[in-house]
Amino acid sequence: MAGGLWPQTAGVSAQTPPASWPQFRNTPALTGVAGSALPASPRLLWTYDAGSAVESSAAIDGAVVYVGSSEGDLVALDLATGKEKWKYVTSEDLGIGESSPAVAGGTVYVGDLAGVLHAVDAATGKAKWTFKTGAEIKSSPVVVGTRVLIGSYDGHLYGLDAATGKQLWKVGTENYVHATPAIWNGVAYFGGCDEYFHGVRIADGSKVLTMSTDAYTAASPAIANGVAYYGTFSNEVVAVDIAARKIRWRFEDPERQFPFYSSAALGGGLVVLGGRDKMVRGLDMATGKVRWQFATRARVDSSPVIAGGRVYVCSGDGRLYVLDLESGKKISEFDAGSGITTSPALANGRIVISSQDGIIYALG
Hints:
The structure is a single chain. With 364 residues, this protein is mainly β. The protein has one domain (20-363): YVTN repeat-like/Quinoprotein amine dehydrogenase (Methylamine Dehydrogenase, Chain H), CATH 2.130.10. It is built from no helices and 32 strands. It has a four-stranded antiparallel β-sheet with strand order 1-32-31-30, with no helix packed on it. The chain has a four-stranded antiparallel β-sheet with strand order 2-3-4-5, with no helix packed on it. The protein has a four-stranded antiparallel β-sheet with strand order 6-7-8-9, with no helix packed on it. It starts with 43 loop residues before the first strand and ends with a strand.
């Protein structure tokens, strides 16, 4: 094991998607691939009113869904019925922003806009511990063995003891840490708002990579076979060869100059992500060439999910789109009636999405 924390992996196939959806983008490498499929036209099963806008994407652990709201509530819902199991209040003044829950070892972790990382008992909703950073948290926690990692707008990535919340190390960057780190061979990789791509060893917090990419980055990287794929605010999608420490390819649409906020999903030889030009694209993983693109009616900040040869992605137009992975053609859509920036969570034959009007939806 690299650093004694995470097994060496050769590629996406070595990281089998779990039956649940325990964290943002599902797998430690943030590939956005689900372990179970859905019907071609999923139907609405239940809704839950969170009472305020939801920007935090859901996590699913077995039969329970965990979601954070801008009102500051972390709620646990029954996946089958939508019935509330418990509610935990983080910060009432500032609430939960884009930080999405992570579930591991019977504990739910989530960050809030007051800069606090919360560890909550998954069964009871009772606090286990809290850890205060120096500024708001929009990054999502990632649990690796006995460590939980969290980025903060104070410019640091923190490594904490998952059981106690004790700080083990922190690593500084030159700007906000907005992206969620992807884990590859015992190292946490993330693009920074300081225009660098960073690699931090999980075991001790030592920096192993600081590579200039000349681009402000908010999207989280997805990693396969030692290559990290992510979009930037310089209107590009880049593929970073980690071992070679170089850009393998860059994609930039010659006609549509818009930032990429959506994090990529990797599957079928494609890098699939949304853009603020309202488009969802499937780029060839090897070359960065466009294989297909699909137009929605508003910008796409939501990160897509790949499952069973299909792409599931939400748009600011309030719709969940189901696309064919190979061709990008629309199979079906679901209209939530309010803009969606959260990313779908898919597990156990259910997909959970949340909208800006505070409604959480389960379809299957």
